[in-house]
Write a structure and sequence with these properties.
Elements (H helix, E strand, L loop, with lengths): L3 E6 L15 H16 L4 H8 L1 E12 L8 E11 L3 E10 L6 E13 L10 H10 L1
Antiparallel strand pairs: 1-3, 2-5, 3-4, 4-5
Length: 137
């Protein structure tokens, strides 16, 4: 799969009192990138929930913090699928500083489970989604 790249700017609200990105916000950045990846494939999460009874819930998150991002830094979130299951996807994600060196700030491996929006029970990823995912992988 080609990596999906999503640009992001660090805002004041993303930082702690020292001007460093608060650690939990890296998970938010990764979530936004996964949402935009889905959108780039033609899937809106609100429509998946209302029309197809599909939600994606984070099941597992492994995150390593390498270097701090700071207020006003330009970042790129690099996202790729590491593993596909019948009812889950595992993403590898890297938060990079937009510099010539592309400095790695944070890396994560996030597993999301496909669940029924109405009952929160596991369900297979819809076939049309898997077709699109296979197309880009």
């Amino acid at each position: 799969m080609t990596d999906f790249l999503w640009p992001l700017r660090v805002y004041y609200e993303d930082t702690d009192s020292g001007g460093v990105v608060y650690y939990a916000n890296y998970l938010k950045f990764m979530e936004r990138a996964r949402t935009e990846w889905l959108r780039s494939l033609g899937f809106e999460q609100d429509e998946l929930a209302s029309k197809e009874d599909v939600l994606f819930a984070v099941r597992r998150a492994e995150v390593d913090f390498h270097r701090p991002a700071r207020f006003n830094d330009a970042l790129t979130i690099r996202t790729r699928i590491a593993k596909r299951g019948r009812a889950s996807l595992t993403f590898e994600q890297h938060v990079m500083k937009d510099t010539q060196e592309g400095e790695l700030l944070c890396s994560g491996r996030i597993q999301v489970a496909c669940i029924e929006a109405t009952r929160f029970r596991p369900r297979p990823i819809p076939e049309r989604m898997m077709t699109e995912i296979d197309r880009v992988c």
